[in-house]
Design goal:
Length: 421
């Protein structure tokens, strides 16, 4: 989409049910593990998102036989991955998960991506591969990994304080190195630890032995990766904005298919919405949130669930008392600098917002959509959905690039409009 998108305005409580696509994070891990297993493997419930197709196309470029049929992905039996040229787009899972796999080929694997992707940090994973003996040309996109049919492996120490994906990327291919890999983190706390928990759980499901018993240390034993039939959970971070819609309109929304347990960071939206004053209840039918008559501000550390920050900031901007969002300095290196972007967009609406070194302070203020200035998405799917959420309470708000949501939610505009109508 190139034109601005008029965000639906809610004139009363929103009440409804919604089904969200599968988790992009789980899908891309599952597709990579399926490829590294040699097949045959399948992935059910895969969302038809840009990030999913970037991973699929990247593995196809490395000569992995993959078929996509709607939400079902099949990886046929094959002899291994081969050299190719990879378009990472803006997908962190592609640019950080595939370089360790590229060391398994014989020959060069070239990586590039969107202009913004060239600004995203890559040093920790590329330097880690060099320390393990890999040949890597370049320190950020574009770069080339020259594979030599695998690595000896061993111990490696990295600073993963900018992204948990640095750890996950090294772990996902580690079983296929001669000695496996032990990853030690040395630095400020790793953000989004639930994503590493997801990686570890999925590796174990594929028969890989992983020891994460020591803090900031993950040991993957050498061995094979078993072919599996993977079933992907609904994307709980995408679901969070729909549950938040209930919170900001004093309505009731149910997300169907909510898992009883999950390693997804998106599950963290539930206690946060309770702090805002919402009622949260789960049942076999799904997860339901009912919003309060008045939202109260919160003080919350979002370090482990940083991807929820745009949604939480949007709710905080509509609360009756101040909020402080902490622990998310790493968001400055995401699809955009999300801290600066949120401060700029809320301020443009009349919001009273300050950036802090690791987050935002948001105070109550009347919000109004300025004429001729749409909410900026910054080519960032979560900034786009945050604009949609604010638009429920701010009539006339437009989002400049709702198409950015295709990264993880192919028909977000349609699902949002169906819920609001």
């Amino acid at each position: 989409m190139t034109s601005t998108w008029p965000a639906p305005h809610a004139t009363g409580p929103i009440n409804g049910r919604v089904t969200v696509p599968g988790s992009k994070s789980m899908t891309n891990r599952a597709v990579l593990l399926a490829a590294l297993s040699g097949g045959p493997s399948t992935v059910a419930g895969a969302p038809a998102t840009r990030d999913t197709m970037l991973m699929v196309d990247a593995l196809r470029a490395m000569h992995v036989p993959i078929t996509v049929d709607g939400e079902f992905i099949s990886v046929d039996r094959h002899a291994g991955i081969a050299p190719g040229t990879i378009d990472c787009g803006l997908a962190g899972t592609v640019m950080r998960f595939l370089p360790p796999a590229a060391t398994l080929v014989e020959g060069p694997v070239r990586f590039d991506g969107d202009e913004r992707a060239r600004e995203r940090p890559m040093g920790p994973v590329l330097d880690a591969l060099r320390s393990l003996g890999a040949v890597v040309i370049g320190d950020s996109l574009p770069f080339t990994v020259v594979g030599e049919r695998g690595l000896d492996g061993g111990d490696v120490t990295i600073d993963a304080s900018e992204s948990s994906q640095f750890v996950s990327g090294l772990l996902l291919s580690a079983a296929l190195y001669d000695k496996g890999v032990t990853v030690h983190h040395d630095g400020p706390p790793v953000p989004s630890l639930p994503h590493i928990d997801m990686t570890v759980a999925m590796l174990r499901h594929a028969g890989v032995v992983v020891d994460d018993s020591l803090p900031n240390t993950w040991r993957v034993e050498p061995g094979r990766i078993d072919p599996k039939h993977w079933v992907v959970e609904p994307d709980l971070s995408n679901a969070s904005v729909f549950l938040a819609a209930a919170a900001v309109t004093a309505g009731t929304v149910t997300v169907t298919g909510w898992p009883a347990e999950s390693t997804q960071p998106g599950i963290g939206i539930l206690p946060i919405l309770r702090e805002f004053g919402a009622t949260v209840s789960g049942s076999p039918d799904g997860m339901t949130v009912t919003g309060p008559d008045t939202l109260r501000g919160i003080d919350v550390d979002l370090h482990d669930v940083g991807e929820l920050t745009p949604t939480v900031a949007a709710v905080a901007a509509l609360a009756s008392t101040p909020s402080r969002l902490r622990g998310v300095a790493h968001l400055r290196g995401h699809e955009t600098d999300r801290i600066a972007a949120l401060a700029a967009e809320l301020t443009a609406l009349g919001g009273d917002v300050d950036e802090t070194p690791d987050g935002l302070e948001i105070r109550p203020a009347p919000l109004t959509a300025p004429a001729g200035r749409p909410w900026g998405a910054y080519a960032d799917h979560r900034m786009a959905t945050a604009g949609a959420l604010v638009g429920l309470a701010v009539p006339g708000l437009e989002v400049d690039d709702i198409g950015a949501t295709s990264k993880t939610f192919p028909d977000f505009p349609g699902s949002w409009a169906a819920l609001i109508s």
